[in-house]
Design a protein that fits this description.
The complex is a heterodimer.
Chain A lengths: L6 H17 L2 H8 L6 H14 L17 H13 L7 H14 L2 H12 L5 E4 L15 E5 L2 E8 L10 E7 L10 E7 L5 E7 L5 E14 L3 E2 L5 H12 L6 H17 L1 E2 L2 E2 L4 H31 L6 H22 L26 H7 L10 H13 L1
Parallel strand pairs in A: 1-4
Antiparallel strand pairs in A: 2-3, 3-7, 4-5, 5-8, 6-7, 9-10
Helix pairs in contact in A: 1-4, 4-8, 5-6, 5-7, 8-9, 8-10, 9-10, 10-11, 10-12
Chain B lengths: L6 H17 L2 H8 L7 H10 L17 H13 L7 H13 L4 H4 L5 E4 L15 E4 L4 E11 L6 E8 L2 E7 L5 E6 L5 E16 L3 H36 L1 E2 L2 E2 L4 H26 L6 H27 L9 H11 L7 H9 L7
Parallel strand pairs in B: 1-4
Antiparallel strand pairs in B: 2-3, 3-7, 4-5, 5-7, 6-7, 8-9
Helix pairs in contact in B: 1-4, 4-7, 4-8, 5-7, 7-8, 7-9, 7-10, 8-9, 9-10, 9-11
Classes of the chains: A alpha+beta, B alpha+beta.
């Protein structure tokens, strides 16, 4: 048993750290640290910096323009990026569609789309969930009917994250209505400029806009935009979900958030005492640190296992459940640490001399409410438990 | 033993509940609660005419209520509708002005709105920790310091302030024009403000006000507990309805045992929350007032957060949206713990008095 990284991995960690020190723009890091909303330009800017270094597509092989990194290297990179408050990589093209095209796409599709993902010409979004198909994704109803060389798509998608920035969407659509629901689903690529598509923003609980509804009315899509065979979309969807789950534990986010929380707890005072010196709050803080220490190692153990087997397995569901619970516990403490001062909406009126809370923490309640999503999206924690139960109990 | 609500209180609850559902529905509520001036002056007058404020004071002070159960009756209804009107500061002011012997009629009629400024950035909950200072310079009292997250400051005609002076902690009154006030909106709706006081002119109401301030804070915490019970009831009704009607995997999701048990857990916690609130209401004005209120506020803090988080999780993405009312209930339920003492603060107060019975 050896819990340390190999010398090569340690050297890689140092290299990533040095790169972030030199190349991550301070104003981007500050926005991330303060939990402020990033603009499309912010995200594009960071992607371009990574792409120039050849580090944008961490999960792709070298010949496709990726890094060819091992699972451990990918983990080190993610963790260092979180520590440095780098913007997160927008996953839809790079972590979701890219691996799908590499596995199931035609050569023509790979050649057309992969370079456009890397250089930012294409911003992809995801058309999976529907109002009636959330946890039960296989019940999706958006129809694609063959008409010569085209499919005609009608239906509605929802929870399309950052769709407002996208020019393309990958969708699960129904191409067969008889038989098992899973067997009639296809995976298609759609240009958002196609007539008949309407994107409407959904306002979230804390007031922000990051998800959308997408309506399709007689949208004509060339059959050549089908990925894989017709009716094999479910297999592709499952493959994609597995990739969505790398770094699903969000350990890097938790480590960074816990550090911020501890620093906050040394600044907040309750009647002459620092919050970190009040036993009840300190006990909660210590508990979540214990859980996170264990989580770090659980994550590494599963990572080592995946590296050995070549692919992550269903046990990643465990990482998603515990990882999100820990992140939410940290968000909860960061909100409650502020007392009454957590409640006002962050505003410029409360900056500077009028500051109500220590720097970087104005959005703690906003983050707490926004991050209730992490135990819902990407397969809710209830669905993850079903997956684990099936594995354990048959 | 009789747990029935008196006829008078039932009538008040019914008329207030009906008014709120007819005239302060969630769409109007959200339009008011998240935009300046964060309350609705016409609706304020309507509520006052319904007797919402008179219910906060006893008959010998011009009201028709003033008992713990009167406060619970009013705030349960306000909570059920997420009403953002600044009624809570009027309750605190009523208790303080009663103790000071001031005529309550302008407050109870709704004509004069008060805000009560006690908490500070480094002393958010405990009266004894406040640092704002009052000095008597010979030509009247002057107050300097900062009062933080003062609920109702956005809509106040008068402000009551707790400040430290040579003789202890006193209660003062100022006109809002005598302070520099930054008004802001709250993440869970409604408004508040920061008060910057720099030798602001003030009138002394009580020199030794520690006990009356604690009494007012107890009453405020009771009101918040009742507000949470009302909000939990509405949030839970929405959840149950959703579990019954939302279909996934070919059946209502309420048919899945994993969700059934969690829904039942919420039901149990809500009944516990109702019980501890009733207990605290019954003990107002007794020796056990502060301890019972702290028990209630602690339990409410835990239960309300559970209801908020679980109702979002079980209803899923839809409960993460602004458009769906459950999200606004969840925000209020979580943020109630940030007002007048959180779960830890009140737990400490209960912990300080744990001796076994002799």
């Amino acid at each position: 048993m050896d819990l340390t990284y190999s010398p090569e991995e340690q050297a890689f960690e140092a290299e990533v750290r040095a790169f972030l020190n030199a190349e991550l723009p301070a104003e981007l890091a500050a926005k991330v640290r303060k939990r402020r909303e990033l603009t499309k330009e912010d995200m594009d800017r960071w992607h371009a910096i990574l792409n120039a270094k050849g580090w944008l597509a961490a999960t792709w092989p070298v010949e496709a323009g990726g890094t060819g990194w091992s699972a451990v290297q990918q983990h080190i990179f993610e963790e260092e990026c979180c520590r440095a408050n780098a913007p997160r990589i927008v996953p839809f093209g790079l972590k979701m569609l890219g691996p799908v095209l590499l596995k199931f796409g035609t050569k023509a599709q790979q050649e057309e789309y992969l370079p456009r993902i890397l250089d930012g010409r294409d911003w992809w979004c995801q058309g999976y969930s529907e109002p009636g198909a959330g946890s039960d994704l296989a019940s999706l109803k958006t129809r694609a009917v063959r008409d010569g060389d085209h499919y005609i798509i009608n239906g509605q998608k929802t929870w399309t994250t950052l769709g407002q920035h996208a020019n393309r969407i990958f969708c699960l659509v129904r191409t067969k209505t008889d038989g098992k629901p899973q067997e009639g689903i296809s995976f298609v690529l759609v240009d958002l400029d196609t007539p008949g598509i309407e994107m409407r923003p959904i306002r979230l609980i804390e007031g922000g806009y990051e998800v959308n509804e997408v309506f399709f009315t007689d949208v004509r899509v060339p059959v050549s935009n089908l990925v894989g065979e017709e009716n094999m979309g479910w297999t592709i969807a499952k493959y994609l979900l597995l990739h969505e789950r790398t770094n699903i534990a969000g350990v890097g986010f938790s480590i960074e958030a816990l550090e911020q929380l501890k620093s906050l707890a040394t600044k907040v005072r309750r009647g002459g005492k620092r919050l970190i010196d009040t036993p009840l709050f300190a006990a909660r803080l210590a508990e979540v640190e214990i859980d996170l220490e264990a989580m770090k190692l659980t994550n590494l153990r599963m990572l080592a296992d995946a590296q050995k087997k070549g692919a992550p397995g269903p046990e990643t569901s465990m990482l998603k459940i515990k990882g999100t619970v820990i992140r939410q516990a940290i968000n909860d403490l960061a909100r409650r640490a502020l007392g009454p001062a957590a409640a006002p909406f962050p505003s410029e009126a409360l900056d500077g001399n009028a500051a109500l809370v220590p720097e970087d923490h104005a959005a703690n309640a906003v983050s707490y409410f926004n991050n209730r999503k992490i135990s819902i999206y990407g397969g809710s924690n209830e669905i993850q438990k079903n997956i684990l139960a099936k594995g354990m109990l048959g | 033993m009789d747990f029935d609500v008196s006829d008078d209180r039932r009538m008040l609850a019914d008329s207030l509940g009906r008014y709120l559902s007819d005239h302060y529905g969630i769409e109007h509520r959200n339009a008011v609660a998240y935009d300046t001036p964060f309350h609705d002056a016409q609706k304020w007058r309507d509520l006052a005419e319904l007797g919402v404020l008179y219910a906060l004071a006893p008959e010998d002070r011009g009201g028709f209520g003033g008992a713990g159960f009167d406060v619970v009756t009013v705030f349960e209804q306000l909570g059920g509708a997420l009403c953002p009107e600044p009624v809570l500061p009027q309750l605190l002011a009523t208790r303080l002005l009663m103790a000071g012997g001031v005529d309550l009629e302008p407050l109870l009629s709704g004509a004069t709105r008060y805000a009560v400024a006690i908490g500070e950035i480094d002393a958010p909950y405990a009266v004894e920790d406040i640092a704002t200072e009052a000095t008597d310079s010979g030509d009247g009292w002057k107050i300097s310091g900062r009062k933080s997250v003062v609920y109702g400051a956005h809509a106040a005609d008068r402000i009551l302030i707790a400040a430290r002076h040579a003789g202890g902690i006193g209660l003062f009154e100022i006109a809002p024009g005598n302070a520099d006030i930054t008004v802001y909106g709250m993440i869970d709706g409604g408004g508040a403000g920061e008060l910057f006081l720099d030798k602001s002119e003030a009138v002394l109401l009580a020199g030794d006000a520690g006990a009356m301030l604690q009494d007012a804070l107890d009453w405020g915490a009771l009101a918040l507990a009742a507000e949470a019970v009302g909000a939990m009831d509405t949030a839970n009704a929405m959840l149950i309805d959703y579990l019954r009607t939302r279909k996934q995997f070919g059946r209502p999701i309420g048919g899945f045992q994993a969700l059934q048990h969690r829904a039942v857990d919420l039901g149990i916690e809500i009944e516990q929350a109702r019980s501890i609130t009733i207990l605290a209401a019954s003990r107002m004005g007794t020796q056990a007032q502060s301890r019972s209120v702290s028990m209630a506020k602690n339990l409410i803090g835990r239960a309300a957060r559970l209801v908020a988080e679980e109702s979002i999780q079980m209803q899923g993405g839809i409960a993460m949206t602004w458009e769906y009312p459950a999200s606004h209930y969840a925000k209020r339920l979580v943020m109630i713990d940030h007002q007048l003492g959180d779960t830890e603060f009140h737990l400490e107060r209960v912990m300080a008095d744990l001796q076994p019975a002799p």
